[in-house]
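Morning run. Coffee first, then this:
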Amino acid sequence: METNMMNMSDISMKISTLRKQRDMTQLELADKLNVSYQAVSSWERALTMPDISKLPDISQVLQVSIDELLGNDKNAVLIKNVLTGQTDTYMNENALTVETLTEVAPILKPSQVDNLAENLEPVSINELTMLAPFISQDALQKLAEKAENIGDFKSLSRLAPFLDSDYLDNLALKTELAEGIKALNCIAPFISKHVLQELAVKSINRGNIRDISSIAPFLGEDFLSQAILKMQHSH
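And here it is:
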């Protein structure tokens, strides 16, 4: 799924065009907005987006409305509702998708993304990987708990760096109980060593020592040596 990140090229072109129409240099615009010259240059080259808190100042300095600055596509409408504190109105009239939220997220504060994310319907783990850089850990984990394919460990491995270690440890304990230790292969690097060793001991005691081979690199040499000795003594 590709995102246009709030039509960055369109907004950057508008800022650049409006600045030139006002016969202002990038440095002059930066001074009026109390930002660095590099920030304005980055906006106009569509490398970054202005923070949402700067949009009213930008529109005032460039003598245009926020509507004219942002345009009227669905993403701009959402941004304007966030700015005016009317997100409830937007939610009543539109279904918020992960794609839309991910597109506008670069311009929003994390707390604003968190608040909007509460309105999302259950989504896939793969979709959450796009949103993860812009949302708090707590909000992300709440979405992950409701995800449609929490058992998609290949996708979960891409989300794992953004999740709390305790959350992943608990997920590992539940998964091993239901599916066996081999299912944890993809997320093993993100699970605490002591939890992996605990699960490995359970697997060995059930006579499934071969099952731990997929997570062996994460168990530690001493633990593996003891496991091998135990296996030898049992034969």
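The chain has a mean pLDDT of 85. Good start to the day.
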